[in-house]
Known about the structure:
Strand order of the largest sheet: 3-1-2-4-5-6-7-8-9
CATH architecture: Alpha-Beta Barrel
Number of helices: 6
Number of strands: 9
Number of domains: 1
CATH topology: TIM Barrel
Bound molecules: S-adenosylmethionine, the ligand Nc1nc2[nH]cc(C(=O)O)c2c(=O)[nH]1, iron/sulfur cluster, magnesium ion
Order of helices and strands: EEEHEHEEHEHEHEH
Radius of gyration: 17 Å
Structural class: alpha/beta
CATH class: Alpha Beta
Helix content: 25-40%
Amino acid sequence: MTDAAPIRVSEIFGPTIQGEGALIGVSTVFVRTGGCDYRCSWCDSLHAVDSAFRETWAPMTPGAIMAEVEKLSGGRPLLVSLSGGNPATQPLGEVIRLGHARGYGFALETQGSVAKDWFSELDMLVLSPKPPSSGMEVDWTAFDACIAAGQGADMVMKIVIFDETDYDWARKVAGRYPQLPLFLQPGNHTPPPPGDDAARVDQDGLDARMRWLVDHVTRDGWFEARVLPQLHVALWGNKRGV
Ligand SMILES: C[S@@+](CC[C@H](N)C(=O)[O-])C[C@H]1O[C@@H](n2cnc3c(N)ncnc32)[C@H](O)[C@@H]1O
Ligand SMILES: Nc1nc2[nH]cc(C(=O)O)c2c(=O)[nH]1
Ligand code: SF4
Ligand SMILES: [Mg+2]
């Protein structure tokens, strides 16, 4: 199957480092697609979610996306991180094929609500089911379909945790998916309003929640879980494009 339809792109930026999860610290260029089927109460990327920003999302062909990635990376292959919005709602298969042919690797971040057959061609699929604090309800049938579609890719699960209820929920979800390496990430209560590039962030609050999370994980002997902060937020606050 070829993906002839254009892809809605909110922003392409980098190289920077992957700030979250399994690939933390790895040099990468981000391709952030526009549009999401969720509305998480605390989403830190509303400029790629809220349809009020639709006119800032450019329709791009796979060739144009890879040309921009190659320009930013100086033609040197590296990891491309596909995020959004929900990048699974966009026809990204051809970008992955084109990039792979040129030596680039691909990781994709999604909440796991939409499965695509091209998930299997990814180098890494990051599934990030949303906890109660998001206000969203996970469709586990759709989530399981994403896992089935991703067979062949490395797959991990990353759960954002704001409070005790999220933590208990994450314990249950982890028990259901023991095959997925698990990353826990404290939530950022001060994401920027869309359109605002302000870097302010409640770093003390984030640090306190990180310590609280580590305390809980060690208290419970939950040794399979890896706890990581959002490194890019620690370094640059809520700044966009890093
Ligand atoms: C902006 S989302 C885009 C990809 C996809 N829609 C998803 O949610 O997985 C990228 C990652 O940022 C996380 N995230 C979003 N807002 C956050 C916040 N306020 N604090 C911590 N992590 C957040 C999401 O859970 C997800 O793992
Ligand atoms: N450096 C950096 N790392 C990230 N990891 C996940 C991000 C995202 O917004 O999807 C992100 C981001 O926006 N920047
Ligand atoms: S699923 Fe991801 S992009 Fe969509 S609203 Fe939630 S955090 Fe934001
Ligand atoms: Mg982000």
